[in-house]
């Protein structure tokens, strides 16, 4: 009974702590656009949309165990879907979001077919080829995509009733979309699909024996991942207001994968940390030198992988483990029984003459004067 009460109390404390954390995070997120300058608000908005893209990549790589170097292509597909709808068809901004998500989901389903027979480096090369040939293809489709010049569209404008500036309104809209996307990813991982992805990542043969359909869930992993990337690309068009093929080269795919690894694979908070890394490291190092972003980015990746092999999300646990190993452990006193005052596992030492195979002790006078077997009788002189 005491154990049940203790467990209920612990669960209640955890829920209260989680609720307080969510409330504090929501209050801080709501206060941000009114405290920082417009450019800093823009950077935070970019962090949020990159977090959406990385959360989708986390489903595929972190939890699905499949390597993808073509995530930037799905990002570009979502961005161009929104740009073409805004420029060619003059639709509203919010109407482009479900179209980009659905289109990239179907694109991911079709691209997930090669994943059924490929794995490891072979799958990575196939996905990389998709990211390589998409920018030249966008340049060739000039009547639709604008070619090398790209497309310039209107940014997301705040309504009159909001009383917010353009950067503040865009930040809040992207924040809402990012929150919904992260909650969807969290619930997806806790569902049957998420458990199937974890089983496939750990052992495909054992997962298949347990009834997990490999073809279905591998394809769905690509589809969900592509959908999140398409949503992030749509948000990118809203924030930047301009798309061009050169903005979505294969370097973007490599950068997104590096950001996820630095943030932490198979972690719910890893995409946020990785998005901040992708956004702020090149921006801060750009002030040092024009060639500094690439050098600093590479050196920081090496440093993070050395200090925190599981990413920034696993760094606090690693630090706690190191501190716990460094601290001296107090020696626990052995329990003693009240009857004898000795430890319960202690056994009394055997005394002389005890047991069937006991050896005689030197202090026993009867044994000292005893004659050995078969010895001649003693005389008086002896």
From TrEMBL:
Region (Disordered): 327-382
InterPro entries with a match to the protein in the record: ABC_transp_permease, LivM-like
Locations listed in the record: Cell membrane
CC annotations in GO: plasma membrane
Highest taxon of the lineage: Bacteria
Spans through the membrane: 16-36, 42-61, 68-86, 92-113, 120-138, 169-189, 220-244, 250-279, 291-308
KW Cell membrane (keyword) present: yes
GO molecular-function term, one example from the UniProt record: branched-chain amino acid transmembrane transporter activity
Main location: membrane
Membrane topology term: Multi-pass membrane protein
Keywords: Cell membrane, Membrane, Transmembrane, Transmembrane helix
Protein name stated in the entry: Branched-chain amino acid ABC transporter permease
Species this protein is from: Streptomyces filipinensis
């Amino acid at each position: 009974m005491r154990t049940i009460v203790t467990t209920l109390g612990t669960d209640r404390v955890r829920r209260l702590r989680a609720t307080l954390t969510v409330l504090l995070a929501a209050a801080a997120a709501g206060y941000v656009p009114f405290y920082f300058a417009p450019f800093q608000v823009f950077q935070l908005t970019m962090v949020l949309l990159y977090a959406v893209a990385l959360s989708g990549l986390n489903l595929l790589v972190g939890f699905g165990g499949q390597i993808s170097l073509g995530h930037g292509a799905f990002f570009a597909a979502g961005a161009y879907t929104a740009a073409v709808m805004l420029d060619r068809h003059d639709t509203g901004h919010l109407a482009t979001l479900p179209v980009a998500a659905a289109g990239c989901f179907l694109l991911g389903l079709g691209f997930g077919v090669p994943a059924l027979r490929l794995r490891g480096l072979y799958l990575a090369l196939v996905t990389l080829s998709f990211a390589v040939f998409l920018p030249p293809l966008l340049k060739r489709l000039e009547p639709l995509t604008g070619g090398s010049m790209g497309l310039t569209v209107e940014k997301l404008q705040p309504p009159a009733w909001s009383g917010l500036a353009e950067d503040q309104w865009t930040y809040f809209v992207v924040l809402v979309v990012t929150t919904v996307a992260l909650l969807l990813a969290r619930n997806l991982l806790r569902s049957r699909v998420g458990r199937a992805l974890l089983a496939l990542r750990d052992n495909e043969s054992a997962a298949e024996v347990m009834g997990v359909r490999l073809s279905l869930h591998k394809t769905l992993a690509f589809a969900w991942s592509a959908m999140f990337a398409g949503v992030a690309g749509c948000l990118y068009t809203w924030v930047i207001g301009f798309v061009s093929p050169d903005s979505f080269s294969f370097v973007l795919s490599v950068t997104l994968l590096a950001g996820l690894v630095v943030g932490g694979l198979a972690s719910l908070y890893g995409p946020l940390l990785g998005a901040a890394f992708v956004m702020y490291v090149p921006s801060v190092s750009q002030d040092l030198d024009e060639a500094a972003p690439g050098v600093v980015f590479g050196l920081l990746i090496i440093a993070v992988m050395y200090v925190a092999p599981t990413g920034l999300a696993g760094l606090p646990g690693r630090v706690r483990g190191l501190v716990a190993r460094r601290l001296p452990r107090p020696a626990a006193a052995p329990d003693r029984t009240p009857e004898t005052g000795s430890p319960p596992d202690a056994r009394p030492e055997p005394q002389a003459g005890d047991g069937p195979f006991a050896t005689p002790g030197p202090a026993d006078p009867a044994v000292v004067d005893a004659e050995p077997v078969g010895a001649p009788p003693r005389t008086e002189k002896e």
